[in-house]
Write a structure and sequence with these properties.
This protein is mainly alpha-helical. It has two domains: about 90 residues, Multidrug-efflux Transporter Regulator, Chain: A, Domain 2 (Orthogonal Bundle), CATH 1.10.1660.10; about 40 residues, no CATH class. About 50% of the residues lie in helices and about 10% in strands. Helix 1 crosses helix 2 and helix 1 crosses helix 3. The longest helix has about 35 residues. It is elongated and about 75 Å long. Keywords: Coiled coil, DNA-binding.
């Protein structure tokens, strides 16, 4: 079970958020906070939905319009998604770094083919040019 799991019926969600059930129905109709649904069509709110409802109530009490609140919630969702993607990419990068055998150097041969140069192999500069060495900038810093 996590913050996204739809658990709470509308009456419980209304009590937890401090809003009237009719307000929650209205927010659902306009797409502001859209809960999950059971097979029978009943609304089920997650903890994240409850947090959003509380945020909507706070912003609304401060005079922020519902369209502006909707935009803020959309941006928060986007930031959350981007943060998850950053974590995924960091994990992929970490895995790639752990799986690569030492520092690799890439070179281009006289005919233009690109190949990886093994660790400790000397490159004949008269016929080959070093193109890229991953981590070279990291090591210099």
């Amino acid at each position: 079970m996590d913050a996204e799991s739809p658990l709470f019926a509308i009456a419980v969600a209304a009590e937890l958020s401090g809003l009237h059930p009719q307000t929650l129905r209205q927010y659902d109709r306009i797409g502001l906070v859209v809960p999950g649904r059971t097979r029978g069509g009943s609304r089920r709110y997650s903890m994240r939905d409850i947090e959003q409802l509380r945020e909507v109530a706070q912003l609304s009490s401060e005079g922020v319009s519902l369209p502006a609140i909707a935009r803020l919630l959309d941006m928060e969702d986007e930031v959350r998604m981007l943060r998850r993607r950053v974590v995924e990419l960091e994990n992929e990068l970490r895995t790639e770094r752990e799986n690569r055998p030492g520092v690799r150097v890439f070179a281009a041969g006289a005919s233009g083919q690109v190949f990886s140069v093994g660790a400790g192999r000397r490159i004949r500069r008269s016929t080959e040019v070093v193109l890229w060495r991953p981590g070279a900038r990291d090591e210099a810093e």
